């Protein structure tokens, strides 16, 4: 069955088609959930909530742009909705700080380590970092999505980069001291 046929069947609440869509996209969307979650369990909850929303709103999918892209937007919004409810951004009104770039020598750092330190970032920094650096959203988009101002988005990104840079530098120092 083609993807278009699966989507049509999902619009009729066909459980078999929903199961097939889930099997096709769950792992990709789960990795997206992990980026925006504090833990594996939290990511699993977000994935389930996202699929519930996807199947509930599948009538709204108009075959414009990719179906996967449409599902990714729903998944990101599902993850962000939780943080909006928790008020992660309510008291944040930071002055913009100097922008920091993070140099990563891919050969020296394991991807698992990078994912781990990104997940360890405080929520407000991790969310902005992921949206901007990993998913390509602009500060204007992020401000709208998170209901914060553009300056707060820029500030949170800079703070996230500062924390990551410090952790990467500490990692390199520890690696050098282990090898000497």
Automatic annotation (TrEMBL):
InterPro entries for the chain: RNA_pol_sigma-70-like, RNA_pol_sigma-70_dom, RNA_pol_sigma70_r2, RNA_pol_sigma70_r4_t2, RNA_pol_sigma_r2, RNA_pol_sigma_r3/r4-like, WH-like_DNA-bd_sf
A Gene Ontology biological process term: DNA-templated transcription initiation
Domain RNA polymerase sigma-70 region: 22-86
Transcription regulation among keywords: yes
CDD domains found in the cross-reference section: Sigma70_r4
Domain RNA polymerase sigma factor 70 region 4 type, first and last residues per copy: 114-162
Keywords: Sigma factor, Transcription, Transcription regulation
Molecular functions per Gene Ontology: DNA binding; sigma factor activity
Protein name (Swiss-Prot/TrEMBL): RNA polymerase sigma factor
UniProt organism field: Paucihalobacter ruber
């Amino acid at each position: 069955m083609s993807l278009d046929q699966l989507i049509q069947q999902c619009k009729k609440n066909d459980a078999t088609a929903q199961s097939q869509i889930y099997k096709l996209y769950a792992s990709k969307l789960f990795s997206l959930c992990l980026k925006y979650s504090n833990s594996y369990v939290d990511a699993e909850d977000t994935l389930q909530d996202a699929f519930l929303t996807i199947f509930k709103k599948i009538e709204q999918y108009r075959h414009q742009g990719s179906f996967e892209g449409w599902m990714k937007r729903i998944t990101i919004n599902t993850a962000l909705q939780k943080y909006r409810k928790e008020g992660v951004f309510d008291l944040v009104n930071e002055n913009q700080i100097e922008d920091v770039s993070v140099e990563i020598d891919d050969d020296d750092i394991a991807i698992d380590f990078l994912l781990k330190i990104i997940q360890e970032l405080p929520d407000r920094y991790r969310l902005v970092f992921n949206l901007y650096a990993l998913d390509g959203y602009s500060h204007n988009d992020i401000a709208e999505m998170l209901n914060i101002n553009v300056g707060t988005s820029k500030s949170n990104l800079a703070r996230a980069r500062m924390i990551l840079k410090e952790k990467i530098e500490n990692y390199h120092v520890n690696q050098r001291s282990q090898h000497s």
